[in-house]
Hints:
Ferritin, about 90% helix, globular
Amino acid sequence: xxxxxxxxxxxxxxxxxxxxxxxxxxxxxxxxxxxxxxxxxxxxxxxxxxxxxxxxxxxxxxxxxxxxxxxxxxxxxxxxxxxxxxxxxxxxxxxxxxxxxxxxxxxxxxxxxxxxxxxxxxxxxxxxxxxxxxxxxxxxxxxxxxxxxxxxxxxxxxxxxxxxxxxxxxxxxxxxxxxxxxxxxxxxxxxxxxxxxxxxxxxxxxxxxxxxxxxxxxxxxxxxxxxxxxxxxxxxxxxxxxxxxxxxxxxxxxxxxxxxxxxxxxxxxxxxxxxxxxxxxxxxxxxxxxxxxxxxxxxxxxxxxxxxxxxxxxxxxxxxxxxxxxxxxxxxxxxxxxxxx
Length: 341
């Protein structure tokens, strides 16, 4: 009874403290939204510049009189990538407009909360103030969650587009110089030429799509592998045992990807257009899916090992090791199953 009376007669909690914490959250998010809009604008400008450069190189490639299947396939791949990235520009415009609306809404919200806070400072009336604070707290979580989702989406889009523009630039450069000077791995170079020749010669639309997909995947995989090798050399002195392990896993994942792409090419070469069956087409798609998993693992490793990250070095190394080991094991098992069919 005494405890209940003490709680009943105790002074009400100062609602100004509640408002201070409520007010800080929209202000913090507003700053993040402003920064996200600036980042998107920068990404869009870079994307437009890269697409323009790729178009110019594509025009140069088309002006060349060549029957080289590799160059012809590069032309086709670059053209498709340019179209895809032009759609990304439109998507960035929409995201930027969405963030502008969120910024406007948060600005209004911050101003309203600031005005309410000033009112509470002047009129410390507990009942009314608690009611206002409660309403503000009930409304904010859902809105702030939506803002967080929008910010995360914008960040993911920026990262994805920057990676794609880097690949596009690399692909456009491949067609302007000798293949042997740009694809350092002889096995990848030979496989890329075989994929290109198959894509140019096939009369099957399904096979053409699959060969074009495998060709692009192969070039991306070789490119990411080269980037990773440079990063791992730079990191070797920091933690030799762990980096040595990761280097071996990166090599294994890369070679696994090449092996699966070679299996896929051999499958297409053996079935041919006349005898093509639905199960064989699906099997090729399965092989491409597994090769794609190797590519994703290599790209994730490159991102995790990049210097500009807030995660601790040990945590990143552990995550990279786990991802590569898991991918290599699962893909190897899937490849064995597909070979047995």
